Task: structure prediction
Amino acid sequence: MSAEPSDGASQDVRAAVLEVLQTFNKTGVNLEDGTRFTEDLNFDSLLVMEFIAALEDRLDISVPLNVLPDIETVGQLVVATEQIVREEHG
Amino acid sequence: MADLFDRFESLLARRDSLVGDGGHDPFQVEMDEVLSQTEAMIGNRRTILAGTNNYLGLTFAPESLQAAHDALEAAGTGTTGSRVANGTYSGHKALEQALCSFLGKDHAIVFSTGYLANLSVLSTLVGPDDYILMDADCHASIYDGVRMGDAQIIRFKHNDAADLDKRLARLAKKPGNKLIVIEGIYSMLGDKAPLDDIVAVKKKYDDVYLLSDEAHSLGVLGRYGRGLPEEADLEDDVDFIVGTFSKSVGTVGGFCVSSHPQFDLLRLACRPYIFTASLPPSVVASAKASLELVEKGGALRKRLMRNAERLHSGLSALGFTLGGEISPVVAVVAPEVEIGVAFWRGLIDGGVYVNLALPPATPQNFTLLRCSLCAAHTTEQVDRIIEVFADVADSLVMLPKQPKKKVALG
Result:
């Protein structure tokens, strides 16, 4: 597999994550890889659920609850989402 | 030096800010003397119990008391062992047989609590290559059960069959079994699952099973009290029914029934079945006796629903915001947590006990004054509950900075 298409795809995933996340960004902080969901974005469990559902719809993927405990930052979510997109859409 | 309990600091701070003023603590209520299914002494006050999930009022049913007494005398105070060791008595098997006949399934397993039934089944039935599709408003025992297992967990929007459909469609190309998990009546708001829509979605896909937790609907819904599947006439479409004896059945314990031919294999694999002591013989005997009363309890269900309608319409007429449809759970939505606590204290001072439910354990992060009705509540008791709600709403207006509209909870 060449690096080119995979980089392009991961740019798309990152853009999609940030686009969806921006609609849930009530605190108005800058969204960077190190931005934390709980501390910086004030996400509670209800908001996490709504956000993940929106992300699933945007990318037509399933994000199992199982991956969430390990995700604290935007960067970690981008990496996890890229992996799911690769698995689901090849 | 760091203390082991430092990690609970934020929990303690929240507790202190809500109830740390020395007033009555909603989470440390002591029933000093239980007078009946519907009344207890709390401190020196005779209190109407309107938050006990004792829907049919069977906790003092003479037949169940007698059965418990007899079993206690005959078999002792406890089994002192697990179901897979020395803890399966003839009573446990008879209770499982009774559940099979009552619910029309081939196999039944009795667990030591409803919580353990969900932990057992949900952690074991599905493996790492399988998927659980659970309603987002499912009970904590369901969340804990699926977390204890290895399956991939997908949540769908509460009572939204179209959302479930979308999620199943995404998974359709993946191998592995899919288990949909719903509840007959959801505990916090008392709303029912749209079972016909969910069954229709289930039937569109292969390898999909359906589990319904009938904790709050067993004894309540259906002509014979078999829960939502009976009421919806879809009993054959629900593959696994989980339930509890600690609500309508009036004691403690849990179960799961199914007609899957291999169902009994779970006995060899469920850790919360294997590694805990079985129910005491007296509990098992009263559960079996009460199940018969549940099945014959048409008149009790009518009284229960009449009480539910009366409380629902009475509180509604006063202007309270209620969650969900008319059901034996009547949940009053408080506009904020502090008002919820003050309101709860007003009710307890007025001689009415309800459950105070706080975020994040509630749907939509509501603060709820959650009432549950009992068939044994008299009309006078229901009217008294409504009256005390009205009095407390009025009295809270006297508090500073509480505009009347807000205090009227909606």
